[in-house]
Amino acid sequence: MWVGGKNPVVLIQNTGMFEAGDSIRGLGTDIEFPLVMMIGYRGWTGHGITKDSDARFTEPILHAYSINYYLVESNDDVDRISVAFEEAERTRRPVACLLGAEYS
């Protein structure tokens, strides 16, 4: 899609992102691919305290891959999705939107 002038989007749960880690790393680091990832934030409670390791590992993994992200939890946060698209295009790197409780 990107080669054809379209803005690619990946819809994935955080556990799927863990499994696809090397591909995501390659896209961001080596190919400079302006990808927006809409990631279901499984285990996210909105309070920062969770027993679910999926939620605890999500942000550290994004940090490890140097992928910026925006938390989208309510209608008030929807504009962050547009910001993510603009940033991905400007930086030619993946950017993530973590979809919290209301949107996942």
Q: Widest sheet: strand order?
A: 1-2-4-3
What is the helical fraction, as a range of percent?
40-55%
Largest sheet: 4 strands, parallel
What's the number of extended β-strand segments?
A: 4
**Number of helical segments with 4 or more residues:** 4
Round the Cα radius of gyration to an integer and report it: 13 Å
Strand content is 15-25%
How confident is the prediction overall: mean pLDDT?
87
Give the topology string: H per helix, E per strand. EHHEHEHE
Which shape, going by the Cα principal axes? globular
How far is the first residue's CA from the last residue's CA?
Answer: 25 Å
* Low-pLDDT residue spans: none
Q: Helices and strands: which structural class?
A: alpha/beta
Give keywords.
alpha/beta, 4 helices, 4 strands, globular
Give structural notes.
- The structure is a single chain.
- With 104 residues, the chain is an alpha/beta fold.
- The protein has a domain at 9-47 and 91-98.
- Helix content is 40%, strand content 19%.
- The chain is built from four helices and four strands.
- It has helices at residues 14-19, 21-31, 53-64, 79-91; strands at residues 9-13, 36-40, 68-72, 95-99.
- Strands 1-2-4-3 form a four-stranded parallel sheet, with helices on both faces.
- α4 (79-91) links the parallel β3 (68-72) and β4.
